[in-house]
Amino acid sequence: MDAILNTAKSWLTDFFDPAVKKEVQELIDNDTEELKDRFYKNMEFGTGGMRGIMGVGTNRINKYTLGKSTQGLSNYLKKTYADQQLQVVIAYDCRHNSDTLARTVAEVFAANGIKVFLFSELRTTPELSFAVRHLNCHAGIVLTASHNPPEYNGYKVYWTDGGQIVPPQDGEIISEINALSFEDINFNSNDALIELIDKDVDEAFIEASVANGNFNAKGKDDFKIVFTSLHGTSITAIPEVLSRAGYKNVTVIEAQAKPDGAFPTVVSPNPEEPEALSMAVKKAEEINADMVVGTDPDSDRLGIAVRNLEGEMEIVNGNQAMILMTKFLLEKQKEKGFKGNEFVATTIVSTPMMEVMAKAYGVEFKTALTGFKWIGKMIKDFPESSFIGGGEESFGYMVGDFVRDKDAVTSTLLACEIAAQAKANGSSFYQDLIDCYVQYGYFKEKLISLTKKGMSGAEEIKQMLVDFKENPVVSVAGSKVKWIEDYNTSIAKNVMTGEEKVIDIPKSNVLIYETEDGTRIAARPSGTEPKVKFYISTNAKLEKAEDFKKVSKELDAKIDRILSELKLG
Q1: Is position 146 annotated as part of the catalytic site?
Q2: Model's pTM, two decimal places?
Q3: pLDDT tens, 29-59?
Q4: What class does CATH assign to 444-565?
């Protein structure tokens, strides 16, 4: 506690604003537990950058923690590109304080002699990724906490390729940041170096989104879409993209169209949560729409609902959307002709069906750690290869490589193209998905997330993962464990034969069990939230579409059994 108290007292110097000093002193005097949570550690970069609760303290998002990160990044950029006029681009989302924090970040860059392109109003994360290369910038920043609760904000760093920072840059930048004290932050802005941007970049991004996501699907005039931005940034792009691609029947949920960091109409602005799409689904039922699309606050992830076999709106999960999007893109590439250098990609905790499908098309399949920065890195690492598309189970997808992060703008258009074309063909998005299961096997997944907040929660998460490793699972739902993949040691071991393989992916705190029948259980801590996550994947043959419901129930029962065995149910 002494170290925490000393850290807190260091915020009582004249460098810090009077209001900040007052709040820290009140915490010291009156609230030991809150003081501990705010100062027991520094903000860290995770799979999605730096994300946390806003407020005073080293373990909070504020002008000083972001200022220090920006100062460290400025120092790193000046060392890396010593002979160049540095340029960065900054965007921000709808969250409380995002605009003022973005301005602070811009001022620190400008104080360090770096040219800044700052979006004049909120914009999507995919547009920021696009803008890095479009404006020939050395780096990009977006102020966002994605789908986290309203009290959160965050800071994601993008590199010259438009992708998020990855090793070795992330570690080197963190070292620069950690070498600084808060007093090293240069807040003395040169405002002449800050240029506001908007419509010109918007136009280029929207044109690129339509070019990459529009496949001239039939049936657009007869296809009804309900769209909700969930109070986020996608309202600045998706309606216009859909309009330019030829969709005229788009109903926007007006009650959720106004950007608002309080997210007043939803419990959580997370398209993974059915509740977030409930208002849009209700409207879809009222007007007999074909599809619902909802995006998270920074518009990098999308949730989709379509009509099932009974004609009712049903939400499809991220794995299901990814399968159909990838299948569609592979078919389009097949029509043009494969050159032999194409690849698709996903993450190690996403559905194994992606690999089965890629092999069926004779296309290379790559897997990465969780976090889209790793898929972006593949594109940079393999310039001779052609990226078709890829995604992850957490409702993110990327079409081509003009954006180097998950992109709900272009993916929304792609989803509509798939569904409109399917309807015109006498099928549906849902029926096409079932047909995929018949062709490649029915893979069904479930995610269990356990929230463990604060200092004690972090320790609990750490211990759960240790226990999961030190008390190995022997069998799952009657099927013996065959492979144990430990991404901490980079070793995959066949426990039946003793064979070991090296996992050629950066080390990470992930453990995966795979059984003889292909059932997979993965465990990892979230990189952006105080959660531990368990991913379960099961599969079965689906001989014909008519057996879909029967096999679906059988897989549900298997998943329930697994949850019970692992005491996660």
Answers
A1: yes
A2: 0.95
A3: 998 899 999 999 988 865 557 899 999 999 9
A4: alpha beta
